[in-house]
Design goal:
single chain, about 150 residues, alpha+beta, Nuclear Transport Factor 2, Chain: A, six-stranded mixed sheet
């Protein structure tokens, strides 16, 4: 599997999340998929885990989104892949991610910045995302953000 095909998994996932096609996003994920959001806290000197789910937990999160109070507007992810490494049938991908929010009046602002640390299973005919850790630099997200970064 070449760099372009591996990168396509990351970029396609971002497009699907931008479109809020959560079922489509889950189709790009392996059955044993895991997802977590972390941020380093200098005050306590360690990582805080803000969200941690397996595939079933993500399905539940997506199913409950219509019941949540959410920020009005849309999110767009800007991804830039830094490096791709291969080991034992998996690609390890490190990417920068910027999450931009556009409100209902059309004003766009940077909402969050961080990195994706992805593991992609490339051993089969279709590459599948097996793990994503979102390591945020931003630590103040405010209320109403329920969509995964």
């Amino acid at each position: 599997m070449n760099r372009e095909e591996i990168g396509a998994v990351v970029y396609e996932g971002a497009l699907l999340l931008d479109q809020e096609d959560f079922k489509g996003f889950l189709r790009t994920c392996a059955p044993d998929f895991s997802y977590q959001i972390t941020a380093f806290s200098p005050e306590i000197g360690k990582d805080m885990v803000w969200l941690k789910h397996d595939r079933q937990g993500m399905q539940g999160l997506f199913a409950m989104l219509p019941q949540h109070v959410r920020m009005k507007g849309r999110f767009k992810r800007h991804i830039s892949i830094y490096r791709i490494g291969n080991e034992d049938g998996c690609a390890r991908v490190l990417s920068s991610v910027l999450l931009i929010h556009t409100d209902i009046e059309g004003t766009s602002t940077l909402f969050a910045a961080g990195q994706y640390e992805d593991i992609i299973d490339v051993s089969g005919p279709t590459p599948l995302l097996t793990s994503r850790e979102v390591r945020l630099e931003t630590r103040s997200l405010g209320p109403g953000m329920h969509i995964p970064v």
